[in-house]
Amino acid sequence: QVQLAEFGGGSVQAGGSLRLSCVVSGFTYSNYCMAWFRQGPGKERERVAAIDSEGSTNTAGSVKGRFTISQDNAKNTLYLEMNSLKPEDTSMYYCAAHGGAGVDCYGRDRYYHYNYWGQGTQVTVSS
Q: Mind listing the pLDDT tens digit for each residue in 55-88?
């Protein structure tokens, strides 16, 4: 059974930093795309960053230069380093995964492209 569990959310002031972690278990695909999404109240879930099994990354324009996605395969953990946080970054953050033969992150920018989800972790940035 595949499980994803996020950690590291919290409340920070604008300009601060947080690092989110997503511990993955039961996920045995060699080819995959893993991503961080966020969803604010009344908003659609949007992809923030993604990384594939080759280590190629993609970051949304709204967070480029501030957020960095990475993975530690030895620890089965996905990370999102968030710097220079802004109040508009306030959201529930989710990790997501999709695996299979030949899978990468190309075109996988919508929530329905992913099979597995964590429960989310709240990030609140105050001004």
A: 999 999 999 999 999 999 999 999 999 999 999 9
pLDDT digits (tens, 9 = 90+) for 26-56: 999 999 999 999 999 899 999 999 999 999 9
Please choose, from the candidates 16, 29, 11, the residue with its C-alpha nearest in 3D space to the C-alpha of residue 116.
Answer: 29
pLDDT in tens, 84-107: 999 999 999 999 999 999 999 999
For the residues of 5-31, what is the DSSP string, one character each? EEE--EEEETT--EEEEEEEES---SS
Cα–Cα distance measured from residue 112 to residue 94, given in angstroms and rounded to the nearest whole number:
13
Residue 75 phi, psi (nearest 5):
-100, 0
Q: Tell me what the mean pLDDT of segment 106-114 comes to.
A: 95
CA dist 20 and 2 (Å) reads 19
The H helix count followed by the E strand count for the chain is 0, 11
- Decide if 125 contacts 85 (C-beta within 8 A): yes
